[in-house]
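Lab manual, section 2.4: Encoding a predicted structure.

Procedure: take the sequence of the chain (504 residues), apply the prediction step described in section 2.3, and record the output as structure tokens. A sample record is shown.
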Amino acid sequence: MARRTLTYALSALLGSSLVLAALPGGALAQDTADVPIENPDLARPDVPAGAQNTAPAGWDGKNTQLFSAALAAHPGKLQAAALSGGSAGALGPGGPGGPGGPGGISNAPGNGAAGTLSTRLWRVQKGSQVTVTWDDSPSPVTNCGSDDPTKGQQYRVSVKGEQGETAQDFTTETTTSGKANWHAGRSYSFTAAENNPKISWAYQKASACGPLVTRFRATQDPAPVPYDLKKARLPMPQAYQGRTPIEARLVVQDCLAGPRTCHFEKDDRYSYRYYDRPRMVGQAYINCTRNAITDQRPVNWEELPYDNITQYFAQRDSETQTKPQQQLGPQGPQQQQGVAQQPHQTDLRQGFQNIATQIAAGFTRADGNPLEMATNNPLLYGRKEQRNLSVTVQPGEVSWIEVQAARERLAGALIHDAKNERMDVFADVPSGSFGDRFYQRTGPMSKVELARCADARDNARTPDNTIGAPTLRSAAHLVPIGQAPKGLKTRTTALTADASPARD
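Recorded output:
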């Protein structure tokens, strides 16, 4: 009976341990998030019929075509991109009943080139685990020369990796001539080696009959939140025009045109509130007496804002100053090393007022206030505090004040819709939603403070001091003499070193 009871007890313990071990897995599953893909179904621009030699909106295409929904024949009635650049001979004017047969498919071979379709996955940080899915089909175009879509068509999906480009090949289903055969849910997973990674679909053959792709989706397991980032050394801003990287200063210049020129989108996954390291403010009051002492003291401190825009320009200015510059000398142009700029603190609200307004508006919208009405949780670009304290310090103790500031780490993107520009933004500002921690502390003295309290009062020595007054024995100008011999009557006279002997 005891053995059976023990078996049941072990089973219960093991069962409970399995339940506990499953909890972290559920938490991780909830962290999976959708990745926004611009124009994922390739619905823009609208192609009424046939095909157009253009890239979908929000995508970059080289030698690609956009097929109408009728020509692509996707079960979801979606438009599709062909990974090849065809000529007018390969595709007719388009539309059912148009020249070249149903759907505008021509039987005449056309000139073609290998095509590449690419986009960027926004709001994906380096280190995130990303999975992209899409649908593919062999080309419904006929008379493709050496390229035979009926046997399936191989294409390549690639992204930037840590050691260069990483890629994987995919092959479409086989089909009969002139018909699409869609495969739903192709999948490619990778670890992002950069922020906002670029992903491409490329056909390797020069053909007018490239495979079709559409209906793109993506999910990610986001990279861990970088809590170790120092507020004074935030990541430099990364800027893009379309999907092409550009210098951040260009986006800053465009967004400064007006308070509503750009808008800020907050990334809640990498934005958080936290308490900064405690730091001492004011002075330490040390009581060396035998009685309690009441101290009246004002305490002042300030919390400063930080952001990667002002840090970016400070770094650019520093690099410009330290670069060698050519100056005319006696022997022609000479290289002269520049002088590094002194460290400085720039307030975003003062130096880039319109951008500060745009970021604050986006912060308010993300806080559940879409109309940007008055709020009790504004974005603060700095804060000054003052306290008047009355502190009682006990004998043999030290009193001091520490502050642990409440701060807000803000991550997101500044977007210029008219110019199709965007820039990643990080800011670290005082929090307006919860207060600082204010520590009024007392404690024992350190060894140095104890030694100082036990030390004698520092006092200048004067001739009237009993201790340290000069004596005859310590006078340097007197010469001591020996004792008189026994049995002899002598007379002694004190002589100085430079005096003559006395005479009887």
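Check your result against the sample. The chain has seven helices and 28 strands.
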